Automatic annotation (TrEMBL):
Region (Disordered): 13-40
TM region(s), chain numbering: none
GO molecular function, one term: DNA binding
Domain annotation HTH cro/C1-type: ranges: 41-88
Name this polypeptide is given: Helix-turn-helix domain-containing protein
Length: 265
């Protein structure tokens, strides 16, 4: 295991001390031993016990004298300190490790983001989809250019499935539909890498593999989606061909993707 640089070890130890001081101590019986505490937060021994590591090792971590902790130790420290989201991610990054993926993507869009979508109803098309690739929200401007999805079933709102329907070439043209299908298969592969045990994503892949030769062909490429910026041409039923520059912005805490469509002309 590669050791942390000295400056990083010091920053890591300082963050541990700061979070320990702000952590809630265990409940003690009134009048019992330890009921009166001289300092706020958790004691080193309490935190070490909660994380399942030795007090000596924890003290060395705080003092910046310990080697790089494993991901298991980092996860245990995060649980013991009650860290989640950005705070847990910061702990992992300080130790030189990528933060763990959330156990599952959120299905609820932040209220503030929904207000933003409504505020842009008459100007900029915006949509939001989850890490499961389900469309969660779309403002009026986006609905006007994309139309409403027909159909039923568990994958009705899934943007990957949309790429393998008969309506895709009607909206995007043959060439555009093929590009979208290629992107959709690669995006599904990336989502399955983040959530390999997700029943919904596994079922989506199984259904597309069983029903779409086009999907099977694109899946066989073994590609993983990475492009977050693209020019898209859409055929509107009354306005003709429209061209947009699309940009995808990520909310890592909920694993939501906000897609903004700006006119390319």
């Amino acid at each position: 295991m590669v050791a942390m640089p000295p400056r990083t070890r010091i920053d890591f130890g300082e963050y541990l001390r700061h979070r320990r001081a702000g952590a809630r101590p265990p409940d003690r019986p009134a009048g019992g031993p330890g009921a009166q505490r001289r300092v706020p937060g958790l004691r080193r021994q309490e935190l070490a016990e909660a994380a399942g590591i030795s007090v000596e090792y924890y003290v060395r971590l705080e003092q910046g004298r310990a080697p790089r902790p494993s991901r298991e130790v980092l996860a245990a420290l995060a649980r013991a300190l009650g860290l989640a989201g950005a705070e847990r991610g910061h702990l992992f990054r300080l130790a030189g490790e990528p933060p763990p993926e959330p156990p599952a993507p959120e299905d609820l869009v932040r209220p503030g983001l929904l207000r933003l979508l409504r505020g842009l109803d008459d100007t900029v098309p915006v949509s939001v989809h989850s890490g499961r690739l389900d469309l969660l929200a779309r403002n009026a401007a986006a609905t006007e250019i994309f139309g409403r999805e027909d159909g039923s079933g568990p994958f009705r709102d899934n943007i990957v499935r949309h790429g393998f329907t008969e309506s895709a070439p009607l909206l995007l043209g043959e060439e555009g539909a093929d590009r979208y299908a290629r992107w959709a298969a690669a995006e599904l592969r990336a989502a399955l890498a983040r959530y390999p045990d997700d029943d919904y994503l596994r079922s989506l892949r199984a259904e597309l593999a069983a029903t779409s030769a086009d999907f099977r062909g694109h899946w066989a490429r073994g590609e993983v989606a990475s492009a977050r910026s693209a020019v898209k041409r859409l055929l509107h039923p009354t306005r003709g061909w429209l061209e947009f520059q699309s940009e995808m912005l990520h909310d890592p805490e909920r694993d939501h993707w906000v897609v903004i469509y700006a006119s390319a002309r």
